[in-house]
Design brief:
The complex is a heterodimer of chains A (611) and B (179).
Chain A lengths: L4 H9 L10 H5 L4 H31 L9 H8 L4 E2 L2 E2 L1 H37 L7 H20 L18 H4 L8 H29 L12 H33 L26 H35 L6 H14 L15 H29 L8 H18 L2 H4 L1 H7 L3 H31 L1 E2 L2 H27 L28 H20 L1 H13 L1 E2 L56
Antiparallel strand pairs in A: 1-2, 3-4
Chain B lengths: L16 H29 L14 H26 L3 H31 L8 H28 L5 H4 L1 H13 L1
Helix pairs in contact in B: 1-4, 1-6, 2-3, 2-6, 3-4, 4-6
The chains are: A mainly alpha (611), B mainly alpha (179).
């Protein structure tokens, strides 16, 4: 049931080397945007699976605290050593490392590479009618930096002391103090890995923006761009401008860890487990790290969600066979989100004591940013109205995205108000909220995209029946995992607890006036864990379908199997190097479906006016 | 199909691809150093025992000299690019060489400054002032080093492009210079 982590790890480490080794230039050191997109996609999906495996192991410790892990316990002990696993039981240090790395891997090594780099690379140049990205070699360097960053992160599990243990947010001073016995430690590796990943996304972002500005085909005006391209354009700006402050923060934290500086370490800070002050110069500010981190961290949320919205938009237009409702509203909303996402970051920090006036400001901006998000979702919902919907597999995922992201977004409002956040902060409610946004939200968007563009990349369709099995089981188990977490969080169960909260949250001491979390909350831990493992099983049809369809899938009979309007379907299948075999000229908007007076129910963007 | 606008500017934007790229990169650099300077300001105003005036133990003369070196190198960089525009390859070689040399001078002076600090017992760990001092100047030194490597390439093996594709080479020097 749980694939051994070694297997996954090997896959992850050698992600790019899977394809034919004889074709080094064609597949490994390629400068073709489509090959790079697929490289990003495969590596990202492997990391996605690896990050999920970490979580499936953690869910065992949460559901059955202190019991040996079945199947893989012994093996992990041999692999990672006795300080990490004892008699098959996951020890706290390993739990912390898995937790931190689950977040880091999912965000920086899985979702962003797949959503932004993979789909962006493969689809954007095709959709704007460009022969390739503006800087193909920079593109290759971007993938290589990402791959190297992944290797560094992955390798950190095996160094003395293990991987980073201070959460994906790496708050100082914890991040500096957590593993002082080892140098270099997991945190140092984390920082170096992040610097590589930031470099990668910087190169990617520059390339995307330059490509979209410079390489649009003749007639492809800004308001004729498919919404997916707009979403990627804004995403690229977020990456370009939000990541550097984290790089700055990472450099400062690296100095704290390695050179003994005190950027984030306050005066009088004691060594872990003692009251002796550390021999440091002091005077640093832990709050500063949080500001720098979340200045990236919040735009990052939109980096995760906007590409998925773009994918969903393409698929909804294609499968309702009618134009997207409110194209201009979508474009202006996504631009608004881009701007506003830079001034909401401190809503992650209400509990830090930064002051009520600052909290009020960020609460206000946070409420404002929900407006364009709601406009986008509303446009998608209204687009369904009156359509003759084709319930293809990509459409099912796109349709499920709408309510799932809706739940994720709306449950964010109580976290955006500082007075309700004080209660909910750092509980399972938060976990449920952002996972609804990213897991059945973004990841469903990504699945939709994979099923949708698979025929363009391979010339074959994925199996429809197993696609539907994958969809329905994933939808059910996703909800069984995350829905109960809202209840757990509102009951007060904190996140990141090694034993699932039994010791701390469950502590009852009437004499001291302590009332613990009720027992049903802990009962839910087991249900959630079983649902998580079932979700793992539910991915098996997808994995088999994905690889088997490359050889055995139904061949497409035309270059445009979905009957779509946008330019990527005007290329040969799969598109050759240079993409288009004829000069491209664009004559109309991206979503001209079922236009009265036209033959057929779609009009490609390249079709000239008859008049 | 070849990638368009590698050399000639696109009509509606008036820019060739690499110029868009380098401006975007510079925007991200603004954010990088912006974050570092903001951190410096925040740490400084929040500090109970910041170092002022004499206590900082800085050599003002060396610092001033180095600033002059740096600005001069900017001028020679622009002159190198302008020489190419005027079709004077020999002058380009001279100005570019001067730019690289000035970069080297800058690094040597910087090394003397660092050395003096170390001799007086000032390390990044000694005080947050020195921590930010070494981090910021160190990061800047890395940028100067990167610029020297790129410029050396343009001066040496990269300059062969002048014969095959002069416009593209001039563009390259321009975006290298912007950096």
């Amino acid at each position: 049931m749980q694939p051994t982590t070694e297997e996954t790890q090997q896959h992850a480490a050698h992600g790019a080397h899977h394809e034919e080794l004889g074709f080094w230039r064609k597949y490994i050191f390629s400068t073709d945007h489509k090959v790079i997109g697929i490289q990003y996609g495969l590596t990202g999906l492997l990391f996605l699976f690896f990050g999920f495996c970490l979580m499936m192991l953690m869910r065992w410790q949460i559901a059955y605290p202190g019991k040996p892990m079945p199947v893989v316990g012994e093996f992990l002990q041999k692999l990672l050593g006795d300080e990490m696993v004892n008699k098959g039981v996951m020890l706290p240090d390993l739990y912390n490392a898995f937790g931190a790395m689950h977040g880091t891997i999912m965000v920086f090594l899985a979702i962003v590479p797949v959503a932004f780099a993979a789909f962006g690379n493969f689809v954007v140049p095709l959709q704007i009618g460009a022969p390739d990205m503006a800087f193909p070699r920079v593109n290759m360097a971007s993938y290589q930096a990402y791959f190297l960053g992944g290797v560094v992160m992955f390798f950190s599990f095996f160094i003395p002391g293990g991987a980073a243990k201070s959460g994906w947010t790496s708050y100082s001073p914890l991040a500096t103090l957590a593993d002082m016995g080892h140098h270099p430690n997991g945190q140092t590796f984390w920082i170096l890995g992040m610097v590589l990943l930031i470099t990668s996304s910087l190169l990617g972002a520059v390339n995307f923006i330059a490509t979209i500005i410079q390489l649009r085909a003749k007639g492809m005006t800004w308001m004729r761009l498919p919404f997916f391209v707009w979403a990627q354009f804004v995403t690229a700006f977020l990456l370009l401008l939000a990541f550097p402050p984290l790089e700055a923060a990472a450099i400062l934290q690296l100095m704290d860890n390695v050179a003994g500086t005190s950027f984030f370490l306050p005066t009088g800070l004691a060594a872990p487990g003692t009251t002796t002050p550390l021999p440091i110069s002091g005077g640093g500010s832990p709050l500063l790290w949080q500001h720098l981190f979340w200045f990236l961290g919040h735009p990052e949320v939109y980096v995760l969600i906007l590409p998925a919205m773009g994918i969903v938009c393409e698929i909804i237009a294609n499968n309702t066979r009618k134009p997207i409702w409110g194209y201009k509203s979508l474009v202006y909303s996504v631009l608004c989100i881009g701007f506003l996402s830079f001034i909401v970051w401190a809503h992650h920090m209400y509990l830090t004591g930064m002051g009520t006036k600052i909290a009020t400001f960020f609460q206000t901006t946070t409420m404002i940013i929900s407006i364009p998000s709601v406009i986008i979702l509303t446009c998608f919902f209204i687009s369904l109205w009156g359509g003759s919907i084709r319930f293809t597999v990509p459409m099912l995922f796109a349709l499920a995205f709408l309510p799932m992201f809706g739940i994720g977004g709306l449950t964010g409002l109580p976290l955006g108000f500082n007075f309700t956040d004080l209660h909910l902060h750092d509980t399972y409610y938060v976990i449920a909220h952002f996972h609804y946004v990213v897991a059945p939200g973004t990841i469903f968007g990504l699945f939709a995209g994979i099923y949708y563009w698979y025929p363009k990349a391979t010339g074959r369709l994925m199996n429809e029946f197993w696609g539907k099995v994958h969809f329905w089981t994933s939808l059910i188990f996703m909800n069984l995992i995350f829905q109960p977490m809202f209840a757990q969080g509102m009951a007060g169960l904190g996140r990141r607890m090694y034993d699932g909260g039994v010791t701390y949250a469950g502590a009852d001491d009437p004499a001291a006036g302590l009332v613990g979390v009720p027992q049903w909350v802990f009962g839910m831990n087991r249900h959630i864990s079983w649902a998580a493992w079932c979700l793992g099983l539910a991915q098996i049809p997808f994995i088999i379908n994905f690889f088997l369809s490359m050889k055995k899938g139904k061949k497409v009979t035309s270059d445009n199997p979905w009957g779509a309007t946008t330019l990527e379907w005007q290329t040969p299948t799969p598109p050759p190097h240079g993409n288009f075999d004829k000069p491209i000229e664009v004559h109309r908007g991206p979503y001209e479906y079922s236009v009265p007076g036209h033959d057929g129910d779609f009009t490609p963007q390249t079709e000239p006016d008859k008049r | 199909m070849d990638i368009p606008y590698v050399v000639q500017p696109r009509e509606d934007t008036g820019l060739f691809n690499a110029k868009v790229g380098i401006w975007l990169f510079l925007a991200s650099e603004v954010m990088l150093f912006g974050a570092l300077f903001s951190s410096y300001i925040l740490l400084r105003v929040g500090s109970m025992n910041w170092l002022y005036g004499e206590a900082k133990d800085l050599n003002v003369w060396l610092g001033t000299a180095n600033t002059a070196v740096l600005i001069t190198s900017s001028i020679t960089m622009v002159m190198a690019w302008a020489s190419l525009k005027l079709n004077e390859f020999g002058k380009f070689k001279a100005y570019m060489g001067a730019t690289i040399l000035l970069g080297l001078v800058f690094m040597v002076i910087k090394a003397f400054e660092y050395n003096a600090k170390f001799h007086h017992g000032h390390f990044p760990a000694s005080h947050t002032f020195y921590a930010i001092y070494f981090t910021l100047t160190g990061l800047h030194a890395l940028h100067v080093l990167g610029g020297m490597v790129v410029n050396s390439f343009y001066w040496g093996p990269g300059s062969k492009m002048w014969k095959t594709d002069p416009v593209r080479f001039t563009n390259r020097v321009e975006i290298g210079g912007l950096f």
